[in-house]
Design a protein that fits this description.
This protein is low in regular secondary structure. The protein is built from 1 helix and no strands. The chain has one domain. It is globular, with a radius of gyration of 13 Å.
Length: 68
């Protein structure tokens, strides 16, 4: 059996996780929480905190190819 790699986000190792998806790698960290639909404003706020994925719906937030 192959061992699955974990990212550095602490939600993977916590006993109580209050979000469905990991903000760093996008994998599900709590299957008991249902996925929610999010607004563009909510995703913009998560981008400002430098999250790569939405913790509520799992959508990838990072804009690839955009230079600042």
């Amino acid at each position: 059996m192959l061992q699955q790699r974990r990212c550095a986000n602490d939600n993977h190792g916590r006993a109580i996780v209050t979000v469905r998806f990991c903000a760093t790698c996008g994998s599900i960290v709590n299957q008991r929480i249902l996925a929610k639909g999010c607004s563009d404003q909510a995703h913009a706020g998560m981008r400002r905190t430098q999250s790569a994925y939405c913790v509520h719906c799992g959508e990838r937030l990072a804009l690839e190819g955009v230079r600042r």
